[in-house]
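Summary for the funding panel

The consortium committed to producing paired sequence-structure records for every protein in the target list. Below we show the first two records in order, beginning with the earlier of the two.
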Amino acid sequence: MRRFTTQIAAVACCLACGSSAFAQFQDRQVDRFQSRADRRLDTYVFGEKAHIPRLTSNMYKQANVICWEMYRHYNHNQDYKTIYREMYEIRKAALHIQGLVKEDYYRRTHSDDHIVRDLHEMDKWFHHVETDVHDWRPNVARTTSGGDLHAKMNRLKETLHHVMKDYGVKSKIEQTVRRNTRNDPFQR
């Protein structure tokens, strides 16, 4: 609030002094905003690990919500038990990664990085579950509060890939898909 009133006072002072002072004030504000935004964009580095704690927490929460969504609204679909078990494994892996992050495991150097292995496994499981639930529909009687499994899966996929990018891990699944579509004459 104090900053806002200071800015109002500065604008009022600039208006009283003349329009050129007000224009200079506006230019400084725009430059300050742009330089802050440019710094944010310029400083992002693949594998920087700057957002790992927040992202892994979100990833676990989203996986947990998807498990509950499947249990409450999609348990009548074909192969539910098998697919739910796979999604539960994703949830457990996300919790495990979150635990490693809380112990600052990701800040140490390792010859065999456990988080990288877990992220690759999660990515593989996730894309398998994603294709299996593609045709799933919610229970007709319970659609009032649920039924948004596909949107939740998309959010988890975005978070998982963001974690991978921030940790410096490239998705083996997406690389394989890109490589196959480049060689497929029907995908052009």
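The next record, for a separate protein in the list, is shown here:
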Amino acid sequence: MFSFKNPLIDLFFEPGDKPSIPLRFQNLNFDQNPHIFQFKEQFIFKDTHYFYDLTLNGYAPKIKGIHKSDLIYFNSVPSQLSIGDGLYSSGYVHPQDFDTYQDLSPLTLAFPTADCVSVTLISLKNQNLMISHIHLGWKGYVAGFLDRTFDLHTSLGSEVFAIIHPGIFGKNYPCGEDVWIKLLELYQNKPPEFTSFLEESDSLCRPQNFIYSKYYIDLQWLIFHDLLFLGAQQIRFMRYDTFDHPLLPSYRAKTTQRLYSHVVPLNFYPWSFP
């Protein structure tokens, strides 16, 4: 058995839609914040602004996700479309740890999603700010993308703060046995609590009319569990369902738009919000 550290947890959700918290987390201290989701609303978290909209801001890099685990180092807007699944920017980190490197000036990080979860990791050390913003569908998750990116932050000796952005809930995300097997393979090298939590979350997320041959994978809760295990100091959990929400785009609900989560480092340059 491993025991979680006691991080600060800010849980945001729609008023009247209080989340069901899995049994193993009910002893943790959740600061619960009923909050109506709105686009272009500014949040501040650990010297970082972030907001959501349906268009890519001109200051953000244009990136196309490929559902893998390629992390790109940026500190300016590239002139051409980049391909990858995560962005990283900082005041001093060395680029050799990254798959691609653009050597320009700092920027905001933004990534499009339409059901998959995006996660922001923030590290503060000696007044230098390090930020990564990654796309975590199930393929990137089972590839260990979250662990790898978290390790980049902790290797610099920094505490890590995390934002879990909106994504599709498990009740609306029935998956086949192929996804289930990949998750079990991932957890073979982790403590047994990971497999037991996978089974617990599948049971918790099943709707009343569930399909017996399907598994109900809630990536937000799996990511939250991982962040606790990895030792995140503070977690802001945006518990909003892209499938059921009237504003959020969803690939499974067949909407054509994408949700852009923008992450803006305050100490890099003056910023005016749209």
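Regarding this second record: The chain is about 20% helix and 30% strand. Confidence is low (pLDDT under 50) at residues 92-106, 268-274.
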